[in-house]
Amino acid sequence: MNDWIDEELKTLDLGDDRLHQRQKILLDRFAAKPSASIPGACRGWAETKGAYRFFAHPRVTAEEVLGPHSEATLARIAEHPVVLLPQDTTELDFSRPKKPVEGSGPLSYQERTGFFQHVQRAVTPERLALGVIDVLTWGRDPEDYQKNAQRKTKPIEEKESDRWLLGDRRACAVAAAVPGTQILSISDREGDIYECFVEAQTIEGPRADWIIRACQNWSTPQKSDEDETFIKLRPVVAAQAPLGRLKVQVPRSDEGPAREATLTVRSATVELKPPNRVGRKLPPVTVNAVWVCEESAPAGVKPIEWLLLTSLPVDRFEAAARVVDY
């Protein structure tokens, strides 16, 4: 057995040494073959059978299995001055029309079933992976899936989008546990939720910084002189004078080969007008925004354009470029 496994699982407590040994064996097998199935990773039928018994044991929950690793990850975080906690959601497709998996539900459309998994990882700015902080897994209720109009009137605490708030709260808990490390919670466009901005500015105690890639074009409290409509966030930031330009490496994708892109960087501090929520009045918030745009993309290539909202300072080019890098 590898020594790193004993160190990683030193706080494991499943109440039975046989379960402890089985988890260590499985970790060793899956580390060697991370993309394999259970039979493919295990060595023979006896070991495969033991794996299935392990996962079926009532003491073996996701929280108990992940707990020691998360604690070890926290210790690794404390060794670095800055750590990023990106969070995102993926689909686990278990579509079996004749025999649905217990607890599974609809995915992107009714015919596909499985689970959603929201993962929060820890990485350094140099892209060194430190481990997983937390995992939230759930299956949608088929009846709720069909009530799309009703979901829009529910408070965020009763919707799947609450996972982004929970992730930000976990980031703050990590910040409290490792006061010598700057913690940054990072979310893609799904996490562009006004309640997340509100909580970030009102939560008590140690706070994690945050960066969110904007999806919404939020309104500001200012109105246009021409038609009295509220001025939107994007035009406000786009109207700022450029801070400078930076180069980024764009990996190969379906849209074209790998290339180097030159991005113009602009930034602003902007007050946002709260959206209307049923049964709840939200306060205005102030966010820092970084807008980067590729002004001379190759012919036939969609230009890069990112609007990033953050608690970090963005008034200088170096600071804004750091947000883009993170």
Structural class: alpha+beta
What is the H level of CATH, i.e. the homologous superfamily of the largest domain? Transposase Inhibitor Protein From Tn5, Chain A, domain 1
- Cα radius of gyration in angstroms: 23 Å
Number of helices: 11
N- and C-termini, Cα separation: 36 Å
Biggest beta sheet summary:
10 strands, mixed
Averaged pLDDT, please? 92
What is the correct CATH architecture of the largest domain? Answer: Alpha-Beta Complex
CATH topology of the largest domain: Transposase Inhibitor Protein From Tn5, Chain A, domain 1
* N-to-C series of helices and strands: HHHHHEEEEHHHEHEEEHEEEEH
Tell me what you see in this structure.
With 326 residues, the protein is an alpha+beta fold. The chain folds into three domains: 1-60, Tn5 transposase, domain 1 (Serum Albumin, Chain A, Domain 1, Orthogonal Bundle), CATH 1.10.246; 70-206, Transposase Inhibitor Protein From Tn5, Chain A, domain 1, CATH 3.90.350; 214-326, Alpha-Beta Complex (Transposase Inhibitor Protein From Tn5, Chain A, domain 1). The chain is built from eleven helices and twelve strands. It has helices spanning 3-8, 17-32, 38-41, 45-56, 62-77, 142-145, 148-151, 162-177, 194-202, 233-238, 317-325, and strands at 82-93, 105-106, 113-123, 129-138, 182-187, 209-213, 219-223, 230-232, 244-250, 259-272, 285-293, 305-310. Strands 1, 2, 3, 4, 5, 6, 9, 10, 11 and 12 form a ten-stranded mixed beta sheet that branches. Strands 7-8 form a two-stranded antiparallel ribbon. The longest helix has 16 residues, at 17-32. It is globular and about 75 Å long. The two termini are 36 Å apart.
